[in-house]
């Protein structure tokens, strides 16, 4: 993980031994995720009921007060977006940007 300025990343103690590897991002970060032998999911939570589930390897998440953006460089990610009473899933391909 490479964090941008004024950004924070939190994770629970023992996060790598849990069923899912979950982190909470405020700001912007570039992730390069390695798969585990046990196929643990890697999930990035942001504010505003937006989460990124990693199905591939390299992506950028930008989360600020005005908006959230995800840019996929390599592999696949699935976005889980909660708005009001509706939940939407978006499967991204390399080179795509979702805002």
Please describe what this structure looks like.
With 99 residues, the chain is mainly β. It is built from no helices and ten strands. Strands 1, 2, 3, 4, 5, 6, 7, 8, 9 and 10 form a ten-stranded mixed beta sheet that branches. Strand 2 (8-11) and strand 3 (20-32) form a beta hairpin. It starts with a strand and ends with a strand.
Radius of gyration: 13 Å
Q: Count of helices? A: 0
| Largest sheet composition | 10 strands, mixed
What is the helical fraction, as a range of percent? under 10%
Task: Please trace the helix and strand order, writing H or E for each element.
Answer: EEEEEEEEEE
Structural class: mainly beta
Outline: globular
Q: Kindly, what is the distance between the CA atoms of the first and last residues, rounded to a whole number of angstroms?
A: 21 Å
Strand portion? over 45%
Q: Kindly state the number of beta strands.
A: 10
Mean pLDDT rating: 86
Low-confidence stretches: none
Short description:
This protein is mainly beta. Helix content is 0%, strand content 60%.
Lay out the secondary structure:
Layout: E1 2-3, E2 8-11, E3 20-32, E4 41-46, E5 50-54, E6 58-63, E7 68-74, E8 77-83, E9 86-92, E10 97-98
Parallel strand pairs: 3-4
Antiparallel strand pairs: 1-3, 2-3, 3-6, 4-5, 5-8, 6-7, 7-10, 8-9
Features:
10-stranded mixed sheet, mainly beta, globular
């Amino acid at each position: 993980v490479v964090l941008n300025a004024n950004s924070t990343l939190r994770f629970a103690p023992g996060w790598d031994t849990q069923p899912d590897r979950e982190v909470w991002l405020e700001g912007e970060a570039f992730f390069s995720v390695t798969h585990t032998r046990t196929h643990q999911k890697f999930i990035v939570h942001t504010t505003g009921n937006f989460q990124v589930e990693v199905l591939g390897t390299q992506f950028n998440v930008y989360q600020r007060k005005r908006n959230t953006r995800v840019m996929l460089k390599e592999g696949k990610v699935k976005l889980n977006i909660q708005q009001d009473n509706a939940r939407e899933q978006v499967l991204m391909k390399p080179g795509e940007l979702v805002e």
